[in-house]
Write a structure and sequence with these properties.
Shape of chain A: globular
Helix content of chain A: over 70%
CATH architecture of the largest domain in chain A: Orthogonal Bundle
Oligomer: heterodimer
Order of helices and strands of chain A: HHEEHHHHHHHHHHHHHHHHH
Structural class of chain B: alpha/beta
Distance between the termini of chain A: 48 Å
CATH topology of the largest domain in chain A: ABC transporter involved in vitamin B12 uptake, BtuC
Strand content of chain B: 15-25%
Strand content of chain A: under 5%
Strand order of the largest sheet of chain B: 6-7-8-3-9-10
Number of helices of chain B: 10
Radius of gyration of chain B: 19 Å
Helix content of chain B: 25-40%
Number of strands of chain B: 10
């Protein structure tokens, strides 16, 4: 009952708030005021419905939380589908093979002759998947909030563009170089901000991205200024001339390979001594150093490795687009990548991949609603943070195998 | 069991002073720890005990004074202003008064962080997953698990550490500190928040750790029964100054200590 009362209150308040906007209209032709009361009714009904649904959801969530905190082992009680999948090695391998096979045949399924639009869309999406995975190291694992991640992407892209245009260096030589340049810039940025945390860190990284963009825009003798650099060579395929569609498919496979590599490397690192140190740093910096973890080295490695992926994929971006200019590296892109990591679930590799694909593909295929894109985006973010602040997919806790025989006689073969 | 000069000295603190702006939190405090000892540091709230700990372990850099570590079999080192992780590497580990675990990591992983400074797998090793890296990982899992068994947390090894009870979290902190292979263990109020039963078990645990791990222990504690039971020597601090030291018996009878704790008469 309180819900209905409160929703009624909210509806009335909204009807009052939107009165000048929705109800009163001055007809400039006939010079009289129109009162559109039906609009007010509409606002009232909608506000009431949304408010009621909102409170209903919040209450359900609260009761669920209360229930969880009553259980002693909440995680053991209700395994989510991802946990079930991870617990079953046969099933998870099958799913992995199926997804891999689908990814391999994807470009041939969706492209024909001159039409390879979908392949290009997927290439851009996969580029962002790699970016998301890279930022996931810095933000998700090591907990270093980075609002200027796109700068490293720009470093990679410009590295390739300049090396290819000036020295005629090939794509495959530049690919690792771009990654290394990204990592180098990561370390260079990392040094001054070793002591910073949280908000301060975010502001400095934001500044770093702005500096990068301004340098790119204004140093036109080297970087081509706001006009950017055009005619960047596409990836070369053993000197064979490729058609437009083949080029797109080829790039698709390159990025797909990078995604696979990024997943493999991040998983390995996450489950190693290095990854544990990153997570410990995220959890409690003071305890972490007091337990003998070198903070400077751990932070720098997290920055460098995160930036490495951005640099690497920046090379692919430049090669894929043929053309780059500073407008491709705005704060909006940094925010977008950060959103992927947060929405996907901090530290969760699968979650970040799903979130990156969703955030890049949805706007592409929802062009019909282009005007409302940002509105929907914002609403989704707000709802996610309220109802699922841990992200789409929880970072799973890892179970280690200790000596099983010992374990059995220890706790009666649990 | 008074200080025995024939035994090897492990830690030597002299004239330690720590100022925060105009406030002198620790004033000219000296303290020695010998091999195999359990030493307690007691005093009323705000006496500067934890600040003293933080100075010794490198969280703060002391304003004045000397902190010298004498690792067995290695040359002595002056550790003022050294980074905390370096000091831990040299063999001094600590726990925290307000528990500082890694809440979103499992119990076992928490202890494995302690192994970090004793292992050497690099980023490249970790990515390529060589045999050496795997063996090292295996070893740190096994060692950590053994430590968990020692403190009685083996059954909850896969649980998130935030789900543990208060007493269990304190024991986990001890296991994590022990994982760094210390010769000197600093415990900051290990019994705080424990019930009498848990405190009793902690008493046994600390004595056992000293025997099995061959570590000397310095602890800050308010639980007088625990302190009097297990410590060989006691230092007493008040208002940043050291007001007494001696065996539990001597401390019990020391008028200055009684005054500090019971506040018999206000100072002039």
């Amino acid at each position: 009952m309180t819900h209905v009362k409160r929703s009624l209150g909210i509806a009335l308040w909204f009807m009052f708030l939107t009165l000048p906007l929705m109800v009163v209209r001055v007809n400039t032709v006939s010079r009289e005021i129109e009162w559109r009361w039906h609009n007010m009714a509409l606002v009232g009904i909608c506000a009431f419905a949304i408010a009621w649904f909102w409170q209903f959801s919040i209450e359900r969530r609260m009761s669920k939380l209360a229930q969880v905190s009553n259980d002693k082992h909440p995680e053991l009680k209700k395994p989510t589908w991802t946990q079930r999948l991870a617990a079953d090695p046969v099933l998870s391998r099958r799913v992995l093979i199926a997804v891999g096979a689908l990814a391999m045949v994807f470009p041939w399924l969706v492209s024909t002759g001159q039409n390879f639009y979908h392949v290009n869309v997927m290439v851009s999406a996969l580029i962002f998947v790699v970016l998301g995975l890279g930022l996931n190291i810095t933000v998700g694992l090591a907990g270093l909030l980075d609002l200027g991640y796109i700068a490293f992407f720009a470093v990679g892209a410009y590295t390739y563009a300049l090396l290819a245009k000036t020295f005629g260096m090939g794509f495959w030589t530049c690919l690792p170089l771009g990654g290394l340049m990204g990592a180098l810039f990561g370390v260079v940025l990392g040094f001054p901000i070793l002591r910073l945390r949280g908000d301060y860190l975010a502001i400095v990284t934001l500044g770093f991205a702005s500096i990068t963009k301004i340098v790119l825009e204004n140093w036109d003798t080297v970087f081509g200024g706001a006009a950017g650099i055009a005619n960047i060579p596409r990836p070369d395929f053993f000197g064979v001339e490729l058609t437009g569609r083949e080029k797109a498919v080829y790039t698709y496979y390159i990025v797909l390979g990078l995604v696979a590599l990024a997943v493999l490397v991040t998983t390995r690192l996450k489950n190693s001594r290095i990854g544990r140190a990153w997570m410990a740093l995220r959890e409690d910096e003071i305890a972490c150093v007091a337990m003998g973890v070198d903070m400077a080295r751990t932070k720098l490695s997290a920055y460098a490795l995160g930036a490495f992926w951005a640099g690497l994929v920046g090379v692919v971006f430049a090669a894929h687009n043929n053309f780059i200019n500073p407008d491709s590296f705005t704060f909006m892109d940094s925010a977008m990548i950060l959103a992927m990591v947060v929405l996907g679930g901090m530290g969760s590799i699968l979650g970040v991949i799903i979130a990156a694909l969703a955030l890049k593909l949805m706007p592409e295929y929802l062009r019909a609603f282009a005007e409302y894109r940002m509105l929907v985006f914002g609403a989704v973010m707000v709802l996610m943070m309220i109802f699922r602040p841990q992200g789409l997919i929880n970072d799973m806790r890892r179970k280690y195998e200790y000596d099983t025989a010992e374990r059995e006689d220890d706790d009666g073969g649990k | 069991m008074a200080a025995n000069d024939e035994r090897k000295k492990l830690l030597e603190v002299s004239g330690l002073t720590m100022d925060f702006g105009g406030l002198r939190a620790v004033d000219n405090v000296g303290l020695d720890i010998y091999e195999g000892e359990i030493v307690a540091l007691i005093g009323p709230n705000g006496a500067g005990k934890t600040t003293f700990f933080n100075c010794v372990t490198g969280i703060y850099e002391p304003t004045r004074g000397d902190v010298k570590m004498l690792p067995p079999g290695r040359p002595a080192r002056r550790i003022n202003g050294m980074k905390p992780n370096r000091i831990t590497e040299l063999g001094m580990a600590r726990t925290f008064q307000n528990i500082r675990l890694f809440p979103a990591m499992t119990v076992l992983e928490n202890v494995m962080i302690g192994r970090h400074c004793r292992t050497s797998t690099s980023i490249v090793d970790a990515i390529f997953g060589g045999r050496k890296a795997a063996a090292e990982e295996r070893e740190s899992i096994d060692k950590s698990y053994q430590l968990l068994k020692k403190v009685g947390l083996a059954e909850v090894a896969d649980e998130f550490s935030r789900n543990l009870s208060y007493g269990a979290q304190r024991r986990l902190e001890i296991a994590r500190a022990l994982a760094t292979d210390p010769f000197l263990l600093l415990l900051d109020e290990p019994a705080a928040g424990m019930n009498p039963q848990e405190t009793h078990e902690l008493d046994a645990l600390i004595t056992r750790i000293r025997a099995e791990e061959k570590v000397a222990i310095l602890l800050i504690e308010h639980d007088m029964k625990l302190v009097m039971n297990i410590s060989d020597r006691i230092y007493v601090m008040e208002y940043g100054k050291e007001i007494a030291q001696g065996t539990p018996q001597q401390i019990k009878e020391n008028p200055k200590v009684i005054e500090a704790y019971l506040g018999e008469e206000a100072h002039a």
